[in-house]
Amino acid sequence: xxxxxxxxxxxxxxxxxxxxxxxxxxxxxxxxxxxxxxxxxxxxxxxxxxxxxxxxxxxxxxxxxxxxxxxxxxxxxxxxxxxxxxxxxxxxxxxxxxxxxxxxxxxxxxxxxxxxxxxxxxxxxxxxxxxxxxxxxxxxxxxxxxxxxxxxxxxxxxxxxxxxxxxxxxxxxxxxxxxxxxxxxxxxxxxxxxxxxxxxxxxxxxxxxxxxxxxxxxxxxxxxxxxxxxxxxxxxxxxxxxxxxxxxxxxxxx
Length: 254
Fold this sequence. Notes:
Layout: E1 7-11, E2 15-20, H1 37-45, E3 68-74, H2 77-89, E4 93-101, E5 107-111, E6 114-116, E7 124-126, E8 134-145, H3 147-154, H4 159-165, E9 168-175, H5 182-189, H6 203-209, E10 218-226, E11 233-237, H7 242-248, E12 251-253
């Protein structure tokens, strides 16, 4: 699986737990020219469409292209149905790590419905007519840029912009629901967009983000659920990739 940067975290006869790199698209689409995780898994399992139509090569859930981290793959139809039922019943716990602009509360929940924008199909907005969405957040650290980065950037940015920009929160996010772009939109809704987010980050912040952050800082850190065969609670974790640990090296506690 190393061809696409995929790493196997765990595998048994029913499950495959994969560590997805940023930049890899999960599901095949007509608009996608690059090789996807779905196509690679079809080759890995040796089936043209593993598990039958709509099974997506056993992929149980998805991550955005620029999000890295842990993702579950079912190796048979029974496991697929079991895990899909658990996601629907919201008994699967997913934990993400994000670096957000601004200083957030120590713990907070955002429960706002999401709707695909009619003006931009790649973007989702908070809308009362949208689908229910809820995310619990916990701030695990407050940061600012280190002296080297501060000295490099501060001298050519206005004082007001710099004062508003140079504050960051490292947050754990636990989505109760699984909507597209949920964490990204919910953080944007509380004026704390994710560093490097090209859709919700805002042009001014994003332009500066790109000077020290190589990618969007969102990582699927951990997943916990009841194993479909053993009925025991299992937990799998993806280590923070070097691309994100390098971003943290640009920061100091603040």
